[in-house]
């Protein structure tokens, strides 16, 4: 069976395609300007960073700002940059991996298994999506006050996430029930069905949740401010706020610090990009 291409709504003229790509290119360039300014500014002397549009000119470029940042954060009194980076990576890794396991299993139970009260629990999950973390941060602070300045307390409140459960739930609901019925006929239980069939089929969903979770956790600031006073367990975003508060501010070094903060996010996105795009595209089609 072939699809007719005579419908003008399904085809685009060369002029229409050119205009679409031109508009998208302009928008992409506009959104990329702050990132470009960040990278160029990190390679410039501090007195040339805040020069308006001239900051985009590639003049007097060097890696001196990066060297200065790493040298200034390389002692017991100031802390060590790579330790701050390691803390952030470790906490993000625990939140992402733990969240993928916990939230995907919760979503599977809510979307594919039949049990009394399932709809009520899922309604509660939807309600939790409306509760901002800022509204529960202070109660959590008093609840875990005795656990301050520990690594696991930076990750514990963020492993279970209502929005991640909802993302997995939406994707799992699109999987044909006949696949699970065939697995049950072959003798597979819920655990084997989930890990051997559902998980391999849900790579786009796992990639999407992993990227969004890592992005949110990597930029987490409020919770570390409340729970961390020891520099040895200080994550990178909190250290950047301390670094840029030094007087007088060296904007070249601050932007270099910003680039070092952004790079892990770009690496994670590049690694999961293919599955992330598939997940977004499939969600759009199914939605």
TrEMBL record:
Residue ranges crossing the lipid bilayer per the database entry: 21-40, 80-108, 120-144, 150-168, 205-226, 251-272
Domain ABC transmembrane type-1: 85-272
Gene Ontology, cellular component aspect: plasma membrane
GO biological process: transmembrane transport
Signal peptide interval: none
Keyword Transport carried by entry: yes
Entry-linked PROSITE patterns: ABC_TM1
Topology of the protein relative to the lipid bilayer: Multi-pass membrane protein
Superkingdom per UniProt: Bacteria
Alphabetically ordered keywords of this record: Cell membrane, Membrane, Transmembrane, Transmembrane helix, Transport
Subcellular location: Cell membrane
Family recorded in the similarity comment: Belongs to the binding-protein-dependent transport system permease family.
Annotated protein name in UniProt: Sugar ABC transporter permease
Lineage: Bacteria, Bacillati, Actinomycetota, Actinomycetes, Kitasatosporales
